Amino acid sequence: MTVSMSAAPVPGTDRPRLADPAAALEAARAVAPRLAERAAEHDRAGTFPVADFADLRSAGLLGLMVPQRLGGPGAGFADYAEVAMTLGAGAGATALVFNMHASVTGALAQTPDEVARALGVPESYFAMRDAALARSASGALFAVAMSERGAGSRLSKLTTAYEPVDGGFRIRGAKTFVSGAGHADLYLVAARAAGSDPAVVSHFLVPAGPGLTVERTWDSMGMRATGSDDLHLDVVVRADALLGGMEGLTLLLAQVMPQWLVASYAAVYVGVARSAVDAAVEHLRSRGLQRLPAVRARVGRAEARVEAARLAVLEAARRVDAAAGDPQTNRWVWRAKLLAGETAMEVAASMLEAAGTSATRRGAALERIYRDARCGSLQPATSDVCADWLGTAALGMDPENEAEVPRW
After folding, report:
1. Do 231 and 276 belong to one domain?
2. Cα separation of 227 and 224, whole Å?
3. Which of 113, 361, 362, 371 has CA 20 to 30 A from 20's CA?
4. Strand 229-238 with 168-178, pairing
């Protein structure tokens, strides 16, 4: 497959830039089979797919969300969703780490300047943002360090704390489930102002280096190749590492524009669900089981459910691009995550049952995909949290402010 590249390289590199979002999707389709070839071994060994990210970097896909003026293809949320679904169908774990990267770069690129200014960010923020996005276009990998033991992803319960020091901030604490830990170039770290009650939560872009220590803890049932280890921090960062240039934005943005915290996962798990159907079809045909009506019925239901989830994710993505933060957009964001997580889990289980015991052997593609798919409803926001949010809204209540327990 030929991927459309522009003649001019990404500034500061000799790498051709992706011409536009369509070229990025072509690149993802070209890379996905290579990811699929490596997925089983990385799952078996629980190792991070370094070669996968070398391929994504070479293809220019780490710059997917970067505006064209900074060397990227200028993708929107719908473009991201198409790319993530494609990568997820190749290797779910690789796509999940890519999602974390895109959730940082996408949030940076897609928060409109007028919205940022309305929130009160200083003008100096925009230079910091553009510098970070230019690094992404040049191949830097971003990771998210948000969750903590005992708090999960509930931002208001974080214990990692920051305090001002000369020239910047000191951040101390420990994070868990940091996908790509030890392999990322920058980490988006969520922390609360020391002593704040209620919590004042801020995000920082922290470069890899001294003061960050990775503890190898990740040995999971599914998504074993994400390298989602613990990260310990005792680090001083410059003042411009504070995302937005002002404190306390994190909880507000999580409520009013939740797409990168909630729906970005959804596209990955639609891709995983698609891979479950594809792997089942290959397995069933190789054994001549396509003549069984019960098997065909399971495949037919799975095919319909995956397509329905795909359309829901694309509708949410279309609305994000058209009207991010709109109440109806946010309802679609939460619907997308709920439908994708549950579809992946249920479709993979049904395909495994259709394929039979032989598909449960270690090393069988469906066995790995089943374990990966089971993680979708567990990752934030979990399916129960999504369903509660949607039910609260449907009952005419405010899902952000009338819940008994804060969602974030």
Report:
1. no
2. 7
3. 113
4. antiparallel
How many Cβ atoms are within 10 Å of 241's Cβ, its own excluded? 23
Instruction: Give a yes or no: residue 401 inside a domain.
Output: no
Query: Could you please report the per-residue DSSP string of 123-138?
Result: THHHHHHHHHHHHHHT
Domain boundary among 122, 141, 160: 141
Same domain, 150 and 100: no
Domain tally, the chain = 3
CATH of the domain at 150: 2.40.110.10
Digitized pLDDT (tens) for each residue of the chain, 408 residues in all: 444 544 455 656 666 689 999 999 999 999 999 999 999 999 999 999 999 999 999 999 999 999 999 999 999 999 999 999 999 999 999 999 999 999 999 999 999 999 889 889 999 999 999 999 999 999 999 999 999 999 988 888 999 999 999 999 999 999 999 999 999 999 999 999 999 999 999 999 999 999 999 999 999 999 999 999 999 999 999 999 999 999 998 877 777 778 988 889 999 999 999 999 999 999 999 999 999 999 999 999 999 999 999 999 999 999 999 999 999 999 999 999 999 999 999 999 999 999 999 999 999 999 999 999 999 999 999 999 999 999 999 999 999 888 777 767
> Token pair of 192, please?
């609360």
Q: Considering 246, 270, 303, which residue would you say is the last residue of a domain?
A: 246
